[in-house]
Amino acid sequence: MKRRIGILTSGGDCPGLNAAIRGVARAAYEMFDAEIIGISNGYAGLIDDEWQEMKKSDFSGILTLGGTILGTSRRPFRNMRVVEDDGVDKVAAMKKTYKNLKLDCLVTLGGNGTHKTANLLSEEGLNVIGLPKTIDNDIYGTDFTFGFHTAVDIATECIDRLHTTASSHGRTMVVEIMGNKAGWLTLYSGVAGGADVILLPEIPYDIKEVAKAVGDRAKSKKAFSIVAVAEGAMSKEEAKMKKKERAEFRSTLPYDCISKRIAAELQELAGVEARAVVPGHIQRGGSPSAYDRVLSTQFGVHAAELIRDEIYGVTVALDGNEIIHNKLSDIAGVPKPVPKDDHVLVTARNMGINLGD
Ligand code: F6P
Question: Domain containing 94: what range?
């Protein structure tokens, strides 16, 4: 049995991409006669016909490597069917590259946007299999995406390190955690790092409640506080605004990120000395954790099993301890915010962590 497989990584990188690529390749070479084409820089390479024939040795020594050996780029889904100034019909171009390469299938490793385009290509008749990666953990239908747990480890270490300096100075440290519109990364790293306040996009905050919590701690023997705020967090007032209105309101404020704003507001309202910390892309860098190496490998191997069995139009997922697959059409574009009854969220609330509401 022979299969020609195209593989690409799209959207923001994360630890575990290379482990997943290796999982696909190793299992494919093991189970059938595989030829693998590495598409460069995500959908951009598929559009621009940029790729390379991979050799078995290309997949060696990459398990622990962060980033992606294939390169990646962001090509927004909303523009995929739009012909822009360059005059390129992107969907037609991707189909042409797939056809010219005589691919049996395309494996796309990516987040939400990647999955929407994967679904589009599947609807256009291509054989597509998705693999869910993102530090944001916001892909519907899977308990966890790969990359998430490594980012939790990194963000937790940031919070750990802030504890010592916060307690030495009796300061409030406001640490801004990535995650886009979802609070998963902030919630898990906040709990793991022992944050006193956790602010998520899913729970609009009242700054007066946060100031009270921080102020009470400052009056007690615990003169310091750690506030973990998700980059997508918003106040109760902002939550009532439409997206555009909120953006306009924010443009009038003298802060370029939410952590600086909260630190300034806490200084004023709680009378504490506060500092904002933005770890940023450090949360996406470096080697995957052991958990993510295992999950990425399992996901990659399952993708190869699906190719063997000619099951396409699906994305791989984790359901409890099972590796499963969902239809792309069922999950593409479906949000996965932290639900109010999430067990880690309930844990945080029940142990007295302030959630700003
Ligand atoms: O989706 C991963 C992510 O790191 C988000 O958490 C963050 O909002 C975004 O990507 C940052 O994007 P970029 O790398 O394009 O600045």
Answer: 2-146+288-331
